[in-house]
């Protein structure tokens, strides 16, 4: 019987979805890891022995040796993708990548527009062009993965149309970005194919992006992402593939975080003991990573919200960064009953362990 394991962040992102994906990849090495929302703005960190990789354009099973699949709900940027594939090759990671034909393509013009848009900068952005890509694809100026294998003259005409959509005039900056973009397309080894590819696997690992509290339909506007960060998209794929055995992995840190601007409850200064491997550091687009105590009301809200989108046979809770706080962590005040609770004490998935009501 085919099994799906869906990983969802319960907060504003940065919960530990990458390390959870790596943990499941280690347990199920014959699986494929599927990205079903977001795109190249992900920064999911995996550490295996002395190797570390931040997964963005590849799913977080790649360093472990598993193939990646991006669904139609995702965005891809060929230049970013090629650069990451070169990094993974040096670390002996798996650069096998399969992309749904209708995955949306980010162009250099989307990235430039994203970084120069004042509203985007005020509301918060990763600067990777994901939101701009999603919004542009609501217009007639669409670009999908399947278009990347169209005749080159046709692809260039579409790219010129996208440049015109944003009001860019031809210049050296645009020409250089376009040249890098087209060269990356020629160098990338990928397969553009539909969901039938997934039928060859008995276990599918669905890796979520960001967190439920940033969902485009349920977050606090305007500080949201242009994606469904609940189980919605993953469950739709499961139904399409007739997978009924679904296991959830809901992820939270032992404290709250939010990268960039926007509403956040319980924000305060907390002292962390062991965060040298923190990937989410200050950058000019997202700004600082903010911290606070864990808000159980928000956790319950996120859990109940996701139940509206998915029917799961098994529900698990994953609590990461347990080594970073002084207080004894307790699993309490949650309305959802979990089959298993897992804890992570470091950035390494080998330190995952089952925990009970209290940390032992």
UniProtKB/TrEMBL annotation:
Localization annotation: Cytoplasm
A GO BP entry: 'de novo' AMP biosynthetic process
Residues engaged in binding GTP: 13-19, 321-323
InterPro entries membership: Adenylosuccin_syn_GTP-bd, Adenylosuccinate_synth_dom1, Adenylosuccinate_synth_dom2, Adenylosuccinate_synthetase, P-loop_NTPase
Cofactor: how and how many bound: Binds 1 Mg(2+) ion per subunit.
Ranges in a coiled coil: none
EC number in record: 6.3.4.4
Keywords attached to this entry: Cytoplasm, GTP-binding, Ligase, Magnesium, Metal-binding, Nucleotide-binding, Purine biosynthesis
Pfam families attached to this UniProt entry: Adenylsucc_synt (PF00709)
A GO term from the CC aspect: cytoplasm
Catalysed reaction equations from the record: IMP + L-aspartate + GTP = N(6)-(1,2-dicarboxyethyl)-AMP + GDP + phosphate + 2 H(+)
Residue positions of the active site: 14, 44
Residue sites binding Mg(2+) per the record: 14
Enzyme class: ligase
Record-listed IMP binding positions: 14-17, 210, 225, 287
Pathways involved: Purine metabolism; AMP biosynthesis via de novo pathway; AMP from IMP: step 1/2
Principal subcellular localization: cytoplasm
UniProt KW Magnesium keyword: yes
Highest rank taxon of the organism: Bacteria
Cofactor requirement: Mg(2+)
Keyword Cytoplasm (UniProt): yes
SMART domains linked to this entry: Adenylsucc_synt
Assembly and interaction partners: Homodimer.
Biological role: Plays an important role in the de novo pathway of purine nucleotide biosynthesis. Catalyzes the first committed step in the biosynthesis of AMP from IMP.
Family: Belongs to the adenylosuccinate synthetase family.
Protein name according to UniProt: Adenylosuccinate synthetase
The organism of origin for this protein: Chryseobacterium glaciei
Chain's gene name: purA
């Amino acid at each position: 019987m085919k099994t799906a394991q869906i990983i969802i962040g319960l907060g504003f992102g940065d919960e530990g979805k990458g390390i959870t994906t790596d943990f499941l990849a280690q347990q199920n090495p014959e699986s494929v890891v599927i990205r079903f929302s977001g795109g190249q703005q992900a920064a999911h960190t995996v550490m295996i022995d002395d190797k570390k990789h931040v997964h963005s354009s590849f799913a977080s099973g790649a360093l472990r040796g598993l193939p990646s699949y991006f669904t139609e709900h995702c965005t891809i940027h060929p230049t970013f993708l090629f650069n990451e594939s070169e990094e993974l090759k040096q670390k002996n990671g798996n650069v096998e990548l399969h992309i749904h034909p209708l995955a949306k393509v980010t162009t250099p013009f989307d990235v430039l527009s994203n970084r120069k848009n004042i509203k985007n900068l005020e509301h918060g952005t990763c600067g990777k062009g994901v939101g701009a890509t999603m919004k542009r694809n609501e217009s007639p100026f669409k670009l999908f993965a399947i278009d990347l294998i169209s005749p080159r003259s046709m692809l260039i005409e579409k790219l010129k149309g996208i440049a015109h959509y944003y009001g860019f005039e031809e210049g050296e900056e645009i020409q250089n970005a376009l040249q890098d973009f087209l060269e990356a397309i020629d160098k990338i080894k990928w397969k553009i194919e539909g969901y039938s590819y997934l039928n060859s696997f008995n276990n599918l690992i669905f890796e979520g992006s960001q967190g439920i509290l940033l969902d485009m339909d349920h977050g606090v506007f305007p500080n949201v992402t242009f994606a469904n960060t609940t189980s919605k998209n993953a469950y739709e794929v499961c139904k399409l593939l007739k997978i009924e055995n679904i296991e959830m992995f809901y992820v939270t840190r032992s404290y709250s975080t939010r990268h960039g601007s926007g509403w956040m409850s319980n924000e305060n200064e907390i002292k962390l003991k062991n965060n040298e491997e923190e990937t989410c550091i200050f950058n000019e687009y997202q700004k600082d990573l903010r911290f606070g105590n864990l808000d159980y009301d928000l956790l319950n809200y996120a859990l109940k919200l996701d139940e509206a989108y998915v029917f799961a046979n098994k529900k698990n809770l994953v609590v990461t960064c347990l080594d970073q706080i002084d207080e004894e962590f307790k699993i309490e005040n949650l309305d959802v009953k979990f089959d298993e609770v897992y804890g992570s004490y470091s950035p390494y998935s080998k330190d995952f362990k089952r925990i009970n009501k209290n940390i032992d």
